[in-house]
Give the backbone structure.
Amino acid sequence: MDYLEARKDFVEQWGSLGINWGVNRILGQIHGLLLTSCSPMCADEIMSILEISRGSVNTNLRILIDWEIVHKEHITDNRKEFFVAEKDMWIIFVQIIKQRRKKELDPLLETLQNLDNLQPSCDNSTEFSNMIESIDYFSKKVDKALDQIVKEKPNILVSTYLKL
């Protein structure tokens, strides 16, 4: 398998993984392409390689930039915008955790907090209240663990994990 074929396979797989992570396939493919690129790429190059529209490229690049896993880079004497992916996998991992947390865990914690003052009035409401407390307890533990992961340096976390 040559480089271009291997890269194409990787980009396709990264896009498929994106679906499993809750993002669209094209966003994953653009990230995979930039992640494996040796030099910054402009939107035209991304469009050409992935055979997708300019609008799709621009929309997904904005999301990747908002997530802080892709950055704009200026190239002297060129008016086009160029993009480069963050190459440090730990930084990518932390940024994705932050985004997933904001999108999924924070709204859950807010909902659970709003349900905190529920007064059980029957067997069903007691069972419901107990389940909400259990979910709240677990969600808060996950939130604290994610806080720790985001704050830790990768070598400390890996060495701690290996000790466990």
Q: What stands out?
A: The radius of gyration is 21 Å. The domain at 3-85 is CATH 1.10.10.10 (Arc Repressor Mutant, subunit A). The chain has a mean pLDDT of 89.
